[in-house]
Write the structure tokens for this entry.
Amino acid sequence: MYKVRVEKVVEEAVDIRSFRLVRCDGAALEPYEPGAHVDVLGPTGVTRQYSLCSPPDDASGYLIAVKREAASRGGSAALHDRVREGAELAISAPRNLFSLAADASEYLLFAAGIGITPLLSMAYRLNRLNRPYQLHYFVRSREHAAFVRLLESGAFGARATFHVGLDRDAVGHALAGCMAQAAPGAVAYTCGPAAFMQRVVEAGERRLGPDAVHLEHFQADPAAASLPAGAFEAELARSGTVIVVPQGTSLVDALLQAGCEIDTECREGICGTCVIPVIAGEPDHRDHCLSRKEKADHKKICACVSRSRTARIVLDL
Ligand code: FES
């Protein structure tokens, strides 16, 4: 973790504040790939992931934007209520699970609400590379839109479209219209509430094909917690050891109890830290960090939330 100082706090929109972070020791921060996020250890000891939304090549500081969540459990509310300019926080190095494809003919970026943050860093990079893109930002009202002045100016101005106050049908219509204009070989990226992203996926896959829509999740799937969590066996291929994963115990906990060294961060299937290669067996994927193709290939498992469809799964451990 790095120690960082909050250099600037800006009220960006209703319930959204941005925090510019610089290193306490004055050193440069690492450049990062657009779409990356950092873990932020807040004043209540709670760690949350936030996308970086400053220009990715600017190593002088990172910008994050935080939406105060109504059901905050000490993460976003503490950053809003207790962190002022000059405060010190700890952050991780950037990690990226939401990378921009290098070779698309066009990039369609669909944000809703605070989901603008990873897409803003992508737009910065696409501006710099002079690649064709469109940024579509869906918001309840202009007052709920972050970075409005930035998105209406300069290189962003010609490429950012605000979709304000649309009802459900109008959102579907707007998404279909955006997709209809996409160039062959275009890819789409989306971040926002799960229901919004699902609609982008449906509209995008109809027009652009499977795996052309990429999502960024920041919350675990609440439905996953209610799925059956029956027992299975995990075989460690390098030693031949077989570990029983009991009903209700996660694979990662069973592996840790058996002495395996597995790093974890979010434990919600989001960050990708605990992903393990699979040699045989069929994972029951319940995560948000593996791509659709990776899930179909059954060559990896996210050990903190996923289980096994087969009685035994063989891991490359
Ligand atoms: S610890 Fe984050 S995905 Fe498993």
